[in-house]
Amino acid sequence: MAAAGGIPVLILKEGSTRSRGKEAQHNNIMAARIIAEAVRTSLGPRGMDKMLVDSLGDITITSDGKTILDEIEVEHPAAKMMVEIAKAQDKEVGDGTTTAVVVAGELLTKAEELLNKNVHPTVIIDGYRKAADKAIETLEKIAIPIDPTDKEFLKKAAMTSMASKLVSENREYLANIAVEAVLHVAQKVGDQYKVDLDDILIQKKTGESVADTTLIKGIVLDKEVVHPGMPKRVENAKIALLNCPLEIEKTEFDAKINIETPEQMEAFLREEENMLREMVERIKGAGANVVICQKGIDDMAQHFLARAGILAVRRAKKSDMEKLAKATGGRIITNLEDLTEKDLGYAELVEERKIGEDKMVFIEGCKNPRAVAILIRGGAERIVDEAERSLHDALCVVRDVVQEPKILAGGGAPEIEVAKALRDYASSLTGREQLAAQSFAEAIEVVPTALAENAGLDPIDIISELRARHEKGETWAGIDVFEGKVKDMRELNVYDPLAVKKQVIKSATEAATMILKIDDVIAAGKMKTPKGEEGEKYKGGEFD
Ligand SMILES: Nc1ncnc2c1ncn2[C@@H]1O[C@H](COP(=O)(O)OP(=O)(O)OP(=O)(O)O)[C@@H](O)[C@H]1O
Ligand SMILES: [Mg+2]
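Above are the sequence and the adenosine-5'-triphosphate SMILES. Below is the predicted complex in structure-token form.
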């Protein structure tokens, strides 16, 4: 399709489309902005929820940025990049996903205005990068240092992260659980704390209400004891963790055994029975009184286990097995022959309890005192699911603060402060980079703007008042979205982790500059433009 010195150099497959230069940039920016617009109305405590219906008809109701973007299947590559930043934000810090996407969209909107004024993308990108560094520096400067084990502040940050969620009514209760759980698993390394959220096991069970969610110092399995003849409660539990079936394995190929007499039949069955009995003997011999098995347990084996007074659970999840091993200090055995006393885990109590309609197995007082689990309850499945997502944000936020003990009062205050610093900074830059830094300052103000809009307030009035108050040195003047007034956000106990706000700047800048750098989109076959009339998966209409 193109020729260099008479030699054709690039041949695209039939059906490929190509857009380049301004047109490509415009299309990409538009697609990314549509995504940002879609989540903008769900920002903040007065934000709206989204109801998402997947191709199987399953419904999710959420205001969580990452979940919304996860559920909508986007086709356009630039739109996909926006989904990626939400994921990156979630992975790094766990909160601020909506903010990151909204800020990225606004950075692109402002960039397009500059492109229309013939500012070269490279200049915008450089200006944005410098502005981002300055923004992060400003956040570091204004951040309030706290003691990483100060439960009051941790709780306030957790409550802020849940203010915008469906479960906000119960946020104080859930925040306490999140703080307790995170501090329980936090480990001091040098003079800092490290938190691995994988150490916290999350289980969900529909029934009762969110206020019945509990923190368990131990592990909970969503399983019942396999055989009615087994004990339901074992103290001083010595736990065998098995990743091998307590069954006679079926051969993988068809085999035929000719049985001619009833005696032969009996001998055959007896042989099987003996093998199972031997398995149970081995477990008993190692001194176990509890068996948690990742695979199946044959009826006959269940019977023998029950007779030996052993409590057994089958088909435990792999991830639960790993947590059990860590909590009880046991080793997961894949070959029963290897099982010895040394491999057994320990817990003070293993007990089956009735939770709502179902039974669950609780393992408490584990060898590793750090093991904790949270059992989430709620009146309906959708509520339990949203409670889990909200608790995820809260746990992440508490972890962020424990690991980097600095917080910012929220409600748009830090963004206004950053914009102010950037406007000062812009004057130190030359020429067109100055324009880019100014655009960045305007773009970051989308956060207070959207918070005001979602609260039904006039963003222009609010922003000008905020700017004026910040000029006067009121660093923490932000929007009280419930009263509709500008207030010192510290009085309202609205606090976000510094780590989250810094990551917002990083993720948003990264996405915006990445999209700006593209000036040529070459798409193979099938790929459709954002109009998507023929695109099978593209659901562009849903964003309107
Ligand atoms: N009571 C409040 N008054 C004003 N602003 C608040 C209040 N509570 C929280 N906020 C602000 O709301 C914003 C966070 O909103 P939200 O939780 O909806 O989005 P997110 O954290 O960016 O994304 P997500 O939680 O979906 O990952 C933050 O800027 C925070 O400071
Ligand atoms: Mg949030």
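Residues 532-544 have pLDDT under 50 and may be disordered.
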